[in-house]
Structure formats: C-alpha cells, structure tokens
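A brief tutorial aside. Many learners find it easier to grasp structure tokens once they have seen a single protein encoded end to end. The record that follows does exactly this for Na(+)-translocating NADH-quinone reductase subunit B. Read the sequence first, then the structure, and try to relate runs of similar tokens to stretches of the chain.
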Amino acid sequence: MKFLEHFLESKKPLFEKGGKLEKFYPLYEALDTFVYTPDSVTKTTAHVRDGLDLKRTMFTVVIALIPCILMALYNTGYQAHLVLETGKYVATGWRHDIFTSLGLVHDPASVVANMVYGLLFLLPIFLVCNITGGIVEVVFASIRKHEVNEGFLVTGWLIPLIVPPTMPLWQIAIGTAFGVIFGKEVFGGTGKNIFNPALMARAFLFFAYPAQISGDQPWVAVDGFSGATALSQVASGGIENLKISWMDAFLGLQAGSMGETSELACLIGAVILIGTGIGSWRIMLACLIGFIGMTSIFNAIGSTTNPMFNVPVAWQLVLGSFAFGAVFMATDPVSASMTNTGKWIYGILIGMLGVLIRVANPAYPEGWMLAILFMNAFSPTIDFFVMKANIKRRMARNV
C-alpha cells in the first residue's frame, strides 16, 4: 500500500491552503485519515481523559448493531418468503431477477435464501443513505473548512434499520438529507446536535410520506401484499388477535422496520455497548423502569374499548421497537442527558411517554420515535436543573 501513501502525499499540496483544490481539502483529509493514521501530534499540553476517540466510539456502536443487521437481513427475506410460499403472490422486479439468477428459490426454510433476499432490500437503502449523508457531510465540511468526521458512520447504519424494506429509495435520500441537515448540521455538526439525526430522518419520512412508512402495506417486501405489524394486530384486536408466539416476537420473526424487530439482537447490542462503556446502562435501565411502570398503570386501569390497555408487560416488551429505541437511540451521548441523575429522569420519562403514546393513541401504535425526540429537546433542561440542585446542595453543605 506504499504506492497509495506516496500518491496521497504527492497530491497533498494541491489541497492545502493556496493549492488549486483547497476547497476540497475536507474530502482529501477524510480519505487520507480513513486509510492511514494521521501523523499530526498535539504540540500543546494535552488533556487526555480517555484513549477512546470518536472514530472508535462510532465503530464500537456499529459492532453492537451487527446482530440487528443480521436479523434485518434474515427477517426481511423470511417475511417475504412466508407470503410467497402461500402462492397467492408473485415476486417481481430487479431484486427477484438477481435472486433467481443466483440459482436461489423463495423458501422461508432456507437461511441463505432469506439472507440474500433481505440483502437485496437492505443494501440499496444503506448505499443511498450513506451516499446522501456523505455528500451532505462533505458539503458542510467544505463550507466550514472543517475536517469530515465520523459522525455519520452510526447514523448511516441506523436509518436503514428503522425504515420498512419497501421504502422508495428517493424518499430515503430526501429523509436522510433532512435528518443530517436539520438534525445535526444546522446546530454546528457532530457533537453539537440537539436531536438524534436518524430519528429526525424517520420523523420527516413519517410525516412527509405516511403511506410508505405506516399502515399495513410497507412491512413485507412483496408487491400487493397487505399485512399489519404484530403491534397493530394487538392494537386492533388484543393479544388473541396475534398470529405469532411470544418467542417468535422476542427473536424478531415479525413484520416491521428492518432492524427493530428482534429484542434478542438488541440485548446483545446492549451488552456490547455497556461492556465497552459506550452506552449508558442508566438510560437503558431507566427506560425499562419507565416502560414497566407505565404499562403496569395501564394494566391496572384496564379498558373495554382499547385492547392496548390490557397487554401484559411481557408482550409489550417484545412488540414494536422499544428495545431498539432504548439501546441505540435513547443512549445517543450527544442528544441525551449527560448528568447521572439526569440520565435516570430522561430514561424514565422516555419509557413512560413511549408507552403513553403507544397505548393511548390507537391511530399510532408506536411511540418511541416521538418520545425520544421529545425528550431530546428537554435533556439540556434536565441537566440544567440537576446541576443547579447539586450546586445548591454543595453551597448549603459548606455554609
């Protein structure tokens, strides 16, 4: 790889100040630091608190997402093949052409067939999302004359996992651009955003294109098929209306956004994030406490008209995207509360608010996107009052 190193070094003067391609230095710097470790060193006194930098933090989150990614591949193909197996629907389109050209058949019992068919839906969305987000990052870095950082690395994985497999690619591109620009760049870029950019992208898609991200149509990748998610089935008819077992729901064998259906995959991701110190166990546990507490309150109240009031905690936990939201979205270190006490308050309120939206609003049987975005807006306020109370307590102690 010496030739690449020499090539990059020879072109470096073109991108430095005064060079012909000065405006494109962020793009050169991004490529250079991606393939080689920078040789620059700190010349002043360094205040290193941890050897973990942004790049390693982001990379660790991506590793934690791998179980959800694998489950997204498998379950997307599995759900489609279950429908095709009935013989009532026929697979069409370029994905089907590529799939059959590989000598594969639509069989839900085949792990390889499920994974490959799922890949044909996840990969295009991933590419569109990352190309769009990458362009936005480079443009803003060039305007600000900043380096292109790794802030989009995790967002580029989160967005494909929180959308249905049938989402049109041009809508993914618009939603990604909106999420990165208005969720992060307008606030100053990575580390300065108030809202989670991936959730901002999903919120935009939800309100701009509701037919493609809600209802019964988008969750199974088969043209013409209409099927509700497990959560929607419960909302319309109670637990007895469900066609899957609790274990299937726990494993993620249910229709939904590609990477959000498996509680087991999210639990593995949670162990990785907590073990490496990247994800806050306080926020995850607080979300769970708020979730269980609010669900128990609704169970105690009960309802004869709204079946969601009577859904037990064990079922509420494995339906929808609570685990994914609590593990990967609520713990965003930038948009979440930063004080330890604030993390408890922030997490508990997310758990309670998410259940409140899910149960009390039958038109929208999922509440984590709105609950987390809402609490993102209040996390600085929570930290402010926690620190103010701490200062007041210390002053009283030292009088």
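Self-check: The chain has 17 helices and no strands. If you spotted this yourself, you are ready for the next section.
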